Structure of Putative flavoprotein involved in K+ transport:
Amino acid sequence: MHLTDGAHLPVVVVGGGQAGLATSRHLMAQGLDHLVLEADRVGSEWRNRRWDSFCLVTPNWQCRLPAFPYDGPDPDGFMVRDEIVDYLEAFKRSYDVPLIEGVRATRLEHGFRIATTAGTITADQVVVATGPYQRPRIPRIAERLTVPQLHSSQYKNPDQLPPGEIVVIGTGQSGCQIAEDLHLAGRTVHLATGSAPRVARFYRGLDVVAWLERMGYYRKGIDEFDDVDSVRFRVNHYVTGRDGGRDIDLRKFALEGMRLYGRLIDADQQVLRFADDLAQNLDHADAVSEGIKDTIDAYISAEGIDAPSEPRYQPVWQPSQTPESLSLQGISAVIWSTGFRRDDSWIHVPVFDGRGYPTHRRGVTSVPGLYFIGLPWQHTWGSGRFGGVADDARYVVDRITEQRAGVHWIAGKHRTVA
């Protein structure tokens, strides 16, 4: 497809990842003419910002784009990067998504005038499906370092890094998995920990994700929590789907030679300095994991489920003292696994709060006709993932259809427009 300068469409979807594709499928089901703009290619985030050994941390059976569930040979396995891209490409082909690749939206103005790298179009309604992982977040402290540095989105494999020891900053999902990747390749890894929690891969006969699915956790809406902001912006639990799935146990890595530190707090050209919170960070991660097991135990008991018993986790290593600093002599690279920030600077419509986060309820903003899709915890845990984005897309498209029929939804309430 090609973009026609000056064209007007009923709906334009900006972003061709899983959120944009799911939205397109529901728009097609409603018979709504629309266009999907993708700055790169379908699945570009998976293609370009994931390392070579990357795989999902949720089982394949949770991949359920609209009317297109995973149907491969390993539903309990974890698709690797290229298989994820293939899944998205197959979805695009199956439904002949009206997609234009290689065209970036550069400005969205009130009245829904959309400037792009291929011309300007207008729309009655716009869905922003650009995802949460847009601009790498690297702290300013990085400017003090003279060793080679890269963000986790630039990491591909151990061989791309020069010989020597590697520092990984951050213990979210990416940081822990990259540290593991380097560790398994025989590299000496120094890992600066943070407050990210962990979760067990399996417990009492099932993947923990399967237990949480049975318990209804993934259907729980954000408005059912007392601490909405805390839930919406919390760091993901670290675990891996590598080699069929397993825990990531930083204590075990320490026994095997990985060097663990507390939170990075200062640096200069020669030295990194850390907080005295390594033991606290490890204990917190373990406590969260064991707390999840508590809820599973309670569910099994309440439902009378015949599940095998399993001994609880016992820490295999304790820090005898917390290293307060690390000389950068002999360090060949620093990897910043410090997350991403949204980049909505191209959107010139007043829908953002004081932190720059889009204000919405289930993706419906206070500006009639403007929607978001694919935000973390937009409505449920799965909102930004393969497991729940289809439900969010259906909800948004239902609101689009209602507005075209004269019903406006604002902040979760609706009114009929004469």
